[in-house]
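Q: Hi! First time doing this. I have a protein sequence and I read that you can turn it into a structure. Is that right? Here it is:
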Amino acid sequence: MRVALTIWENRVSPVADSARQLLLVDIGNKGILERHYEHFQQESLFYRARKLADLDTEIFICGAISDFFRSLVEGYGIQVFPFIRGKADDVLQAYLAHSLSNPRFVMVGCPAG
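A: Yes, that's right. Below is the predicted 3D structure, encoded as structure tokens:
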């Protein structure tokens, strides 16, 4: 399974629509198998959604995201976990532990999911 997180200074970036970097993480039965970074330039939202699909992303974890961008991403069959905050490694561990809904990882004033 491949998980993509929008990244800014080793944290989940606050706004997915304008993020410039992705952390791609391959996850297997025993946890994280591989991780690498990809540029996520400020292209159109159509391009960004397509790039996630081309990178074989199954899960997209991000901060705030517009309804339009979220719809585009979900249109490729990618599950979106929006309004997430925190250090990338902590967020990944929370995802693996099925605890992203913990208030520690939910952006203040935003709904979980």
